[in-house]
Amino acid sequence: QVHLAESGGGSVQPGESLTLSCVASGSISSFYFMGWYRLAPGKRRELVAQITPGDKINYLDSVKGRFTLSRDNAKKTIYLQMTNLKSEDTAVYYCNQGPAWGQGILVTVSS
Length: 111
Hints:
By secondary structure, the protein is mainly β. It contains no helices and eleven strands. About 30% of the residues are buried.
């Protein structure tokens, strides 16, 4: 069974940066889709960024140019580097690797 542990969330001001990390314990397949989703109050869950088994990375339009998804297979970790954060990025962010989900981590962007 795979367990995902997220870290790196917090409260920042607009324009600042955060990097989320998601470490997997257990067996992770290189054939899994991996990425980050987010859920904001009153909104539907959004796929923020995802890397395919073929290493193609897709981003939500509103985060293109600001967020960068990367992974370290040796560490079984994926990262979401978030720059120039905006208030509309405020949400609980969830890591997803194949069938496994993290518990969610809060990112708050407010002045």
